[in-house]
């Protein structure tokens, strides 16, 4: 196998990057895939939400940045999932990184030896377009963009796509934007549907899988792994993440999973409008 590397990126905080990373990863492990998640955010929310104390996670990505440990040496086995943890020192490491030759390529270089060990590597990016995120984009095959369908969402997406354009020109020619993932979605207000249609049409991007419904269960789950896929998993949001994972793996859509996600054909037509705008 050779892993596909996905960067989960949006420089806006709180749009669901970490939740998306963990739930796609969990859904892929359910499908029998070998998955590594990389916490590329100095706030270390992913590390924390899996139950690890970011203050004591040693070694962590920070040690990789300063050359004390390889990324492979930082990996923790968390059940079926492998995790490369971050801690708060990563913020300092980011500054160190800035003065390095080839600073954009650190993560890419570290992942080279790991590609054969995984089917998928998911990189949870920081809420910035700084050098760490550039590392994530430089290491990635595909970018997944979680968006909350709010009035100004498109501005963040525009900025991110500009950065993706730079990365393509300068450090990673093969980088592809796989599409948008609609997070914390409430299909009832007309407004959220309009924002989603506008985003998809404006940037000519596909929507990956069904929108992930807003659910209090996601907000409640940080200690249990911030992942609702696995264990208790009957909320629409977890089904949406299962469908998203299957789509990323190019598996055929499962009508039952789509229905459980609130994404029957009728529901989809209603949200996206007749005639779509859904991209390819
Ligand atoms: N589908 C959802 N429904 C309700 N709350 C959610 C959902 N997805 C994420 N959240 C919550 O929103 C907050 C921000 O999500 P997070 O994944 O940490 O965003 P980011 O990584 O982009 O900062 C978290 O408290 C998370 O639990
Ligand atoms: Mg996060």
Q: Output the CATH topology.
A: Rossmann fold
Q: Classify the beta-strand content into a percent band.
A: 5-15%
Q: Structural class of the secondary elements?
A: alpha/beta
Measured on Cα atoms, how large is the radius of gyration? 18 Å
Distance between the termini: 27 Å
Flag low-confidence runs: 276-280
Spatial sequence of strands, sheet with the most strands: 3-4-2-5-1-6-7
Name the helix and strand elements from N-terminus to C-terminus, one letter apiece. Answer: EHEHHHEEHHEHEHEHHHHH
- Ions and ligands: adenosine-5'-diphosphate, magnesium ion
Number of strands: 7
Tally of helical segments: 13
The amount of helix comes to: 40-55%
Mean pLDDT: 91
Number of domains: 1
Instruction: Please state the overall shape, judged from the principal axes of the Cα atoms.
Output: globular
What's the CATH first level?
Alpha Beta
What does this structure look like?
- This protein is α/β, with parallel strands linked by helices and 280 residues long.
- The protein has one domain: Rossmann fold, CATH 3.40.50.300.
- The two termini are 27 Å apart.
- It is built from 13 helices and seven strands.
- Helix 6 packs parallel to helix 7.
- The chain is 41% helix and 14% strand.
- The longest helix has 18 residues, at 153-170.
- It has helices at residues 17-30, 45-49, 61-65, 71-74, 90-98, 106-112, 131-139, 153-170, 190-202, 216-220, 236-248, 255-260, 265-272; strands at residues 4-8, 35-40, 76-78, 81-84, 120-125, 142-148, 176-183.
- The protein has a seven-stranded mixed beta sheet with strand order 3-4-2-5-1-6-7, sandwiched between helices.
- Strand 3 (76-78) and strand 4 form a beta hairpin.
- The structure holds adenosine-5'-diphosphate and magnesium ion (MG).
- Adenosine-5'-diphosphate binds next to helix 1 and helix 10.
């Amino acid at each position: 196998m050779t892993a596909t590397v996905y960067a989960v990126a949006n420089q806006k905080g709180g749009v669901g990057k970490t939740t998306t990373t963990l739930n796609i990863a969990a859904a892929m492990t359910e499908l029998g895939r070998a998955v590594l998640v990389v916490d590329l955010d100095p706030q270390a929310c992913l590390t924390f939400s899996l139950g690890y104390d970011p203050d004591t996670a040693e070694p962590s990505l920070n040690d990789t940045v300063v050359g004390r440990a390889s990324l492979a040496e930082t990996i923790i086995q968390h059940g079926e999932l492998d995790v490369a943890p971050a801690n708060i020192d990563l913020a300092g490491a980011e500054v160190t990184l800035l003065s390095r030759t080839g600073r954009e390529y650190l993560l890419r270089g570290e992942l080279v030896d790991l590609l054969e060990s995984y089917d998928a590597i998911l990189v949870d990016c920081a809420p910035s377009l700084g050098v760490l995120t550039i590392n994530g984009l430089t290491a990635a095959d595909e970018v997944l963009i979680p968006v909350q369908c709010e009035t100004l969402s498109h501005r963040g997406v525009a900025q991110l796509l500009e950065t993706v354009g730079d990365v393509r020109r300068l450090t990673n020619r093969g980088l592809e934007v796989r599409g948008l993932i609609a997070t914390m979605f409430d299909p009832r207000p007309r407004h959220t549907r309009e924002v989603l249609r506008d985003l998809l049409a404006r940037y000519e991007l596909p929507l990956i899988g069904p929108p992930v419904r807003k659910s209090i269960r996601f907000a409640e789950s940080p200690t249990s792994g911030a992942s609702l896929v696995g264990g208790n998993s009957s909320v629409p949001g977890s089904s949406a993440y299962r469908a998203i994972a299957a789509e990323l793996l190019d598996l055929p859509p499962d009508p039952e999973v789509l229905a459980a996600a609130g994404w029957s054909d009728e529901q989809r037509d209603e949200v996206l409008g007749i005639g779509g705008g859904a991209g390819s």
